[in-house]
Amino acid sequence: MLWPRAVINRVKTGNDREIVHSYPYRSACPSQVWSELVARTSGDLLLAGYTNYFFFTQLPNFTETLRRKVDSGCRVRFLLGDPDGEVTRQREVIEDVALTVSTRIKITMENLAHLGQLDGLEARFSAAEDAVNHVSLSVFRFDDDALVTPHLARLVGHDSPLLHLRRVGDAGMFFRFAEHAEELWSRGVPAR
User: At the fourth CATH level, which superfamily is domain 17-190?
Assistant: First the structure.
């Protein structure tokens, strides 16, 4: 009675209030969204995609941005798939594309190597027993925002859907995906 139906239909009041936006394809999310989230992150940047290579190819001057983040006290973490792992080899067969999964991981590792050893910058490979869970779900956390990509069947990451989530509390979707990434991180092995 107090709120007209038009307002009720536009105001998020339930569990979906953490969903900022959804995209049918990760590639449909504007690069400006990625850039702004990276720029705003001050405490914890966790990039838990299986390859993460597109950050270096699609965000201008990303390596220097990472250096500035670390220098300002931001914790920067990369969780990657093992380029020599069995799940990686299986995924390469499934995707059947020229830019292989292991090559994409190696692009990320090469770019991280250019940064050298920086306190606050860490890279891990997901544990072998977690690789199948990692390859099927990418979680990119930017403090209290996250971009999440559930990978569909035979599609590469950029062809899978993406959700932009913003933390509202400690029991919502943001928390669940962030905890998933933290669990994988906790069992990961050093990559550098």
Answer: Endonuclease Chain A (3.30.870.10)
